[in-house]
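Q: Sequence in, structure out?
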Amino acid sequence: MRESRYEHSQTRYESQPTTVYGDHRNGNRCFWKILFAIILTAAITFALTAGAAYMIYLRQLNPPATESQRDPANGALLSAKAASDVGLQFSDDPETVAALQKLVDVYNILKDNYYEDLSEAEMLEKMAEGLANTMGSKFTFYLTKEANEQIEQSMSGEYTGIGAVVSEDDGPIFRITDLIADSPAVEAGLLIGDIIESVDGTPASEFENVTHLASVIRGEEGSEVVLGIYRSSDSSQFEVTLARRKILTANTRSRMITDEIGYVQVTEFSHNVSVNFIEAVDNLVKKGAKRLIFDLRNNGGGLADETVKMVDYLTDDQIVASIKGRREGKEFSHEWRSDAKVGVPDDMSYVILVNRNSASSSELFSGALRDYGKATLVGEQTYGKGVGTLTYVLKDGSAVQVTNFEYFLPNGKSIQGIGLEPDVEVTLPDETAGLPISMLEKDMDTQMQKAIEILEDSLKND
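A: Exactly. Output:
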């Protein structure tokens, strides 16, 4: 909960965070879903050097040289005052001393022998990036100022790109997981499941991560980008040229399916989605809906506070999730509760459609309602993102997204790395599996057919 990007949730701060972590009332974001020029959901794999944000406070390596220490550019230690001024403090145990010396050695080797002559500021920037990117959680990473701004723009529901949702698998492999209706990607015939092998002739293997890929696919409105595509369904390879343009994403779509069954598709848990969702539910109930289908297929997550507001509207005072994590060096725990006024009839029940691209906020929403006994899950095993992130915006506009906590559903279980198993497993036929949800006709959508069947049976038993 991208992206978020709580990635499950993520709060964005302009300076050091002061908000209670994990409190969905304070704007925390879920977001594994990271949307850039193309919408990007992704588990980002990283490279580059690991290291401390600064390799200075090393006086313990040479105790006699307390105030006259060497300069890291030539292997010398800095003064103790310079070290303390930047806020770095290290213990003097042998293991830490050895690790710090190793850091100095690596720094000096790269500074003197790398084929490009980088400034000390550039070297330190890479160390900060490398530290964030190699912490061991694929949801913890460094964002450049430009990438951070792209995410902010995408969460507003408007961006310039091609209208494809892309996730990163190990490899890295950049796979399309959803498509925006009436977008350049749809018009060019791209399908869900297609793999991006190159961008403007640059092989995908040369992109460090999905953020890097996005920055290349982004461009001015009206400019063109050439994608090399591999389609596993027929083992074909081809190139497609797309003209970038502004994409407007509607985070909810709703309609009546039958006289008594309403349908709400939630494409992403972005800003104001709870307002749109509640309005859609209200309108459907006024039209006579006694049962509802919530479609979260290909929804990779979004904002945690929006998600909890939506659950709030559908159920009474109960725990939505419990979270456990760390902040300011200490462990913490917290509960998200559904405590707002219920806006639906007491006997209302739901079917929630999910697939392998349903992640983070989608899993929280679905899992909580099922644990309450209010919803049946139909479709495929979900992605399995049961951790939350906080995003710290730095002074220069760059940011660090940090995996901050793990969340547990009302039944006490974590879905991290596991996902939600549907109550009724249904897969789409091969010929329709690559199409956007919005383009599936009723007779093609076997998952929707099963949802309608379940709800019609429950209405008969009322």
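Residues 94-113 form the longest helix (20 residues).
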